[in-house]
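Q: Hi! First time doing this. I have a protein sequence and I read that you can turn it into a structure. Is that right? Here it is:
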Amino acid sequence: MNVTLTETAAGRLREIIASKPEPIIGLRLLVRSGGCSGYTYGMALERHAREDDLVVEDQGLKIVVDSGSAEFLEGAAIDYQESLMGGGFTIKNPNAASTCGCGSSFRTAQKAGSPDSCGCGH
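A: Yes, that's right. Below is the predicted 3D structure, encoded as structure tokens:
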């Protein structure tokens, strides 16, 4: 499994983890069916990896991916971008054949998922 963090994303993730009172092992990255393109990304701070999770390390930080999401995320890069509307993590996913205009939903060439309204106006 190959998932990476940009330097900007790694720096921001370190800041977030350091601000939490409970121990955090890393960032959970997942894919669920939904969004306006068929699949949507999810992220959360993770305290424990599960038995079937894949754990990769980049820049000294752990990224936890469940086995069902791994096929969608191989080769993905996590970035953090600031804008006038605020900041947020983004995913650059080489497996995405098309994406939603808001960037939070995608589909692959092989799988379309189950699209629904993602609330981004598309």
